[in-house]
Every structure is written in C-alpha cells, then in structure tokens.
Amino acid sequence: MFVLRWLKRILKAIAGLVVIVLLIPVLGLTYGWLTTSGLDRTPLPGIAEGAPRKELADKLRAEIPGYQRPEESTFLTYPEWAIVYAAREYAGYVKDNPPSGFPYWSYIGRFWQDYAMVIRASSAYPFNWQNHQMLAVIGTSHTIEHAIQWAYENTVGRVTEAVGGHRTAADVYQAKVAAEYAAFLDQVPWYQFPYAEKRAALFAVQPALSDGVVRPNERKLAFGLADTIKQGYADLIKQALAATSDPALLDIHVWAVGPVGDATLGERETLLERDLGADGAVFVTKRYQVFTEMIPRLIDKGVSFVEIGGNDEILATVLSNGPVAVPEGARELFAYQLPAEPASRRTGLIVAVRKLHAVVPALIKSGTRLEHIYDY
Fold first, then answer.
1. What's the pLDDT band for 232 if we cut at 50, 70, 90?
2. Against a cut of 0.70, is the pTM above it?
3. Cα(33)–Cα(21) distance, rounded to whole angstroms?
4. Which residues form the domain of 116?
5. d(CA 60, CA 211)
6. Are 191 and 234 spatial neighbours (Cβ–Cβ below 8 Å)?
7. Which percentage of the chain shows pLDDT scores above 90?
8. Is 12 in a helix, a strand, or coil?
9. Are residue 141 and residue 199 in the same domain, yes or no?
C-alpha cells in the first residue's frame, strides 16, 4: 500500500506538470493578445509598383524548385528570432552585470506579445500548422527556461554573488559562452550548439586566488547541470527532426533587376540561376543573417528587387535610439524598448519588396541599424 500511495502521488505530480506545460502557451498567448493592439490594415504603399509580368512569374514558380515560399512565414519567423535576440541581449547584459539582474520575465512576456502580433499580421493567410506548432513548443521552452533561471539566480545565485563579492573566472567564462551562443544562433539552430563541450571547458576553468570556492563551484554545478539537460534535449530534437521532418530550406531565391550578375559575383554561396534579360535575373543565396547583411551591399551596387522567395512583402526589423520615421513603401508593425537595454528600441516594419532598395538606405541614413530581414 505504501508503494501504491507513492506511485499515485508521482503520477499526480507528473499529470500536474503536464497540465502546467500545456497551459503555458494558452496563458502566454492570452497575455500577448490582451497587451498588444490591433494592426493597421491599410494597403501597403508600393506593393503593386513595378509588378512583374504574370506569365513570367508563373514560369519561375513552375520551373525553379523552392522558388515560392509561404509569405506568412515572414511574420511567423519573427518570434523565433525574438528568442535569438533575448540570448543576444542576455549576453550583452551579463558581460558587465550579474545574471540575477537580467529581466527574465520581461523577455517571457515579450515572446508571447511578439507571437500575438504575428498571428494578427498573418491572419489573412492560410493557417500554417507547422509554424504555429513550432512556435508553441519553443515559446513554452523559452518560458520554462527563463522562469527557472530567474528563480535560481534570484535565490541561490544571489547568495553566492554576495559570498563571492566580485565576478569570478567562472562568471567571465559563462559570459563568454553566452556571447558565443548568441552569435551561433545568427545562422545555426540552437540544438546544434556544443553544450557538452562548453560544460567540459567550464569544469576546466581555474579560479583566481580571490575567487574563493563557493561561487566558482556553484556556477560549475548549476551551469554544468543546465548544459547536460540542454545537450540531452538537443540530441532528442535532432533525432526527432531527422525522423519526422524535411530538412530546413537553407536557401532563398531572389528575383532582382540592375547589375545583378556583377553585384552577386563576390557574394559567398550565391549563384546566378537565370538571366531574364530586360526583366532582370534570379539568384539563389543563403538565408538568415547572411542574406540580411547582403541586402545593403547589393542595393549600394544598384540592385533592386522584384520578388524575394516569390513574394512581394517582407518583414524587417531595425534598432534605433528613438522612434523611427517610416519611409514610403513600409508600414510599422510594432516598436518597443529592449527590456535589458531601455535606451535601444526595436521597430518591425512590413516592407514592399519592390521598395526595399529605397527603404533600407533611408532607414540607414536616418541613423537606424538594419537588424534582420525575415526571409520566410
């Protein structure tokens, strides 16, 4: 009977945890929906300007595999990148500050607000089950991880901070790993990060004479355990994706006009696919941050865009110190101060692809920094 009672308690605890995990996206999206406003539904300026010949556009879609990407993905990709930005801003914060002071809950709330906003922005498109399933999973993981880290760093972490009295060699190492992780995410999925390797290097960190033993050992135990859990979770994700998912599309097809051949010649992993004569050319290149960094260079060389991923509108974000003057050909989707860096502001803009060559230089000229173009 004793064993049976304990078994029942364990099963109840597991069931309770499952219910809590399932409630996270429900409560998160409810919070996001209630704390964000509706969207401007006026037609995007410049969206119809310079539209290509339909027969040529249809021909490219039919003949180039992977040319057409689902346009709603430009919006649904953003919350994934919001997690990347949270990692980047965490790395910037812990470079000079103790991790106990990081605004973990603000970043939890920010994810669900971002998700609610992109649901509104993509509501005119077919419902993309695969994207939404993935966002619910990573949003739940993001929430659990940040909530646990907040609780730990503001209890045990604060005690060992006080005992140590200063940043130890282990703190410096973990801040370095945080920066490496944030940079890694710019181009590679999180589950490919070498957590086990970083754990081994953490255990090998030699404390300075003034570090004592409490803080260094606590950091090694806490982050060593976290790295072990993350490595195990990452291995499971990799196995599941290998068994159930098609490989991620790592390339993007771009239809552009101007000196496309010459402009793309020096760009790495970029191939001119089709010369369309007076109608421009199609090239294929790498997605993610590589593509974002390429856009201003191509524009500087006289290139403008007809379609990206077969689409005529795209989401972009910029960073600035204040409100952004929205150029013609774009519309603001959201704007907010960075929780860990209140002096900086992130603005999301829906941009007409055929106005991108004018919008990007105007934004850069006004003092904003192009952060990312969300390439479906």
1. very high
2. yes
3. 19
4. 76-244
5. 63
6. yes
7. 81
8. helix
9. yes
